[in-house]
Amino acid sequence: MRAPRLFTSLSLLVAIAIGVIPAQLWAQVSPPVSTTPPVDASAAASSGTSDSVASDAGARDVGIGTGDAGTGAASTGAASGAASTGAAAPSEPSISLPVPLNDRGALYPKQALDEGFDETVAVSLILSIDATGAVTKAAVENPTGHGFDEAALSAAYGLKFEPATRKGIPIASRIRFTYKFVPPPAVLSGAVRTLASDRPIAGAQVTVRDAAGGQRSTVTDDEGNWRIDNLGIGTVHVTVSASGMAAHESDETLKPGQHENIVDRLSGLAPAVQLVTGADGGVSEVEEVEVRGVRPPREVTSFTLDQSELNRIPGTSGDALHALENLPGVARPPALSGLLIVRGSAPQDSAYFVDGTPIPIVYHFGGLFAVIPTEAIDHIDFYPGNFSAQYGRAMGGIVNVGLIDPKSDRLHALAEVNLIDSRVLVQGPIFDTGWKFTVAARRSYIDLWLGPVLTALKSSVSVAPVYYDYQAILERDLGTRSKIRFAFFGSDDKLAILLGGTAATGAPTVLAGQLSTHMGFWRAQGLYTNRIADQTELRVVAAVGEDYASFSAGNIFFNLTDWPITGRAEIAQKLDKQLTMNVGLDVYYAPYELSAQLPPLPRPGVPPPGPLASQQLLQTQSDGTLYEPAAYVEWEATPWRGVRIVPGLRLDYTQATGAWDFDPRIVVRQDVTTSPRTTIKGGVGLFTEPPQPQETNAVFGTPGLVSNRAYHYDVGVEREITRNIDVSVEGFFKDLDHLVVQGLGNTGTGVIYGAEVLLRYKPDAHFFGWLAYTLSRSLLRDAPGMPLMLSEFDETHVLTVLGSYKLGRGWEFGARFRLTSGYMYTPQQYGFYDETVGSYSPLDAYPQFSSRLPLFHSLDLRVDKTWKFRWGTVGAYLDVLNVYNNANVDGIGYNYNSTLSTYVGDLPILPSIGVRVEL
Length: 919
Description:
It contains 6 helices and 54 strands. It has 919 residues and is mainly beta. It folds into 3 domains: 2-181, TolA/TonB C-terminal domain (2-Layer Sandwich), CATH 3.30.2420; 186-287, Immunoglobulin-like (Sandwich), CATH 2.60.40; 303-918, Maltoporin, Chain A (Beta Barrel), CATH 2.40.170.20. The chain has a 25-stranded antiparallel beta sheet that branches. A 5-stranded mixed beta sheet has the order 19-22-23-20-21. It has a 4-stranded mixed beta sheet with strand order 1-9-4-5. Strand 39 (708-720) and strand 40 (725-741) form a beta hairpin. The longest helix is centred in the N-terminal third of the chain and has 26 residues, at 2-27.
């Protein structure tokens, strides 16, 4: 603080020295009009002249409403034009400063609120005031934007001053006048009601506690309504309680100037009941009501990541679906693989959905980005095991991506450019029709720079990869209880590699020419939800689309195209105050076409019959239909306080096997304490997964297959430590049987077991983060009597620690540290020479995946900076993987005859830079 004040004092002395003497001489011949520029508003005193006065009007603390108007005091000094002759200096004229008479302050601009601006801003004005005290001119010294300048000017022209005077005579003046805009407070209101008859609860106690620990309380009126004004922004903790009711606690995030309204429906304390009185004062009915908030989970373990976290997690380059890799139970995927490994299961054992519609892939090639960009995602639900009966055809985990609801206030636009791709998004209302829309697209441009680089380096491999994706959403609310949405989204990936004829080792390559892949999908989806009555809710989603995948390398090729038609409908009916039933249909129907020319698929424990180029290729060309209908029923029972029991039954039919699968499941959750909450939980269920299409193919597959099976067992505990911090510990066990083994049938068995720990700090106004640790073992057996071997996807230890903090002024810093076991791999013992083709063929060790690569560890950092302007915001980020450039290992490379080996490195330090513009 000392340096600015010293600078101001020196400026003031210079102003007096060079300005006062000429001003006094000018006063003898000049009329009283303003000619002298104002001095700095931070000056401790102001100099008066014969025809003008400059003053520091002081800062205005202005939110929504009025602010305090401060005034500066005029100072007089002695200055003499005859000091050099020793003559007596004339006395300084007596000057008084203008005083505001009606300063009501300035409103925090709506434009800034709409743009998410939540900082204190000062706008400095130069005001010209005439001898009557009216503001004749106002100008902004340093424009701020976001509507602040306009708000300050509008307020300034409405000011009226007691004019400045010289010896009691009003004179014109110019002053510096500062408006200080403080983010306006928020308003939180609500209603407390019963569920069965929607009756108000009068006299309920409502307490709101802010992040600093300050509390505000009120009680509901006769209509069950309440309101608390002038709340600070950020996350507040709301507690609602009433006599005979279970208290309910929740968090609400308030924005500047926001009026948030919530509705609470409280549950009765067992064995107490809620008595509803009639007009005569007698009891007319007895009911129990339940808590407002997020619907309790139907799974043992579930994770939901929303927009407050999705694009801020370090090491993901802002990609939402990569955030899943940091959760408990998820192993580190192989570099550039695009695989999701959940609790030791193979990637194909997990299923992926967009608002309930299945999709075939979640990542573009190389796993760099997801097929649905973060900007189009509202939230992600992740269930690592023991999931609800509404999902089937999977033994691993479930990922359900929820698309955003388009904004309805005005038109919004976004564009982002980084080193890999570019994307745009536009959303907003469609005039006054009640419809709103979102349109988004993204395209990579790796092909534009990587190909020329490899050509310039005279590489024997030239790569031309490209991907793009697109999303379009059209949505309308049909009253307060129902909504309809239409969506169209898809993805496309192409990769072409031109291989030379000779490997770097001098040995002949197995393949030469072009290796290319092309894969993608699209979906046209319709979604309808309707709360038909207080006790009945309907949700229907249906989609049509296309999946395509092709691969070619020399005379080897594979082409598959299918046209899935999917539908899911669920109706939730509250049968009783303690019982809800969910009944649903889940249908998958997909005509397909397949053509392939491939070598025979290898059988476990059997060495390859020779080099790939010398093997006899098998051919197939077929078409058919995949038909897999399912029905399920699930109950949610709360027979006593704090308990939730969710038994479910699912029945699946698979046309490829001609068999029905019956999957019973049950989940139990019991709150042991409520404030803070402690919950014990457990579950057991049967999960079946149909064979893969290639496993039932007449040429490459095995006849007579049935579905793979897995029995899931889970037990755990959740504990809320504070309002923002909670911890969960869980143990899991999966017993696998009827696993399909190539060439053998359903002979495979296995076990997967482990424990997971999650310590999480939920997002607040500045910080979020978590620590996740998974200890697991994944073991498989190909057939009875064969050894139990570690799975290819076993990672014993997976530790992730991450956090992100908003520093203010648009800066945010995040870090992620990962420590995991190395990948499993199968060593090559040696290579044998095949004289018929003149090359070597490796011989793999048995059992497979008997060795592990070294430990992996990496630190990733992310820095974001956002600038806010009148027209929108500009953001830039730097996301750096493997900051200290650790030489992690991704695989083993061998020479042409498998006598020498070396480590294949994982990604080195890899920066990613991006710029985003939002309107």
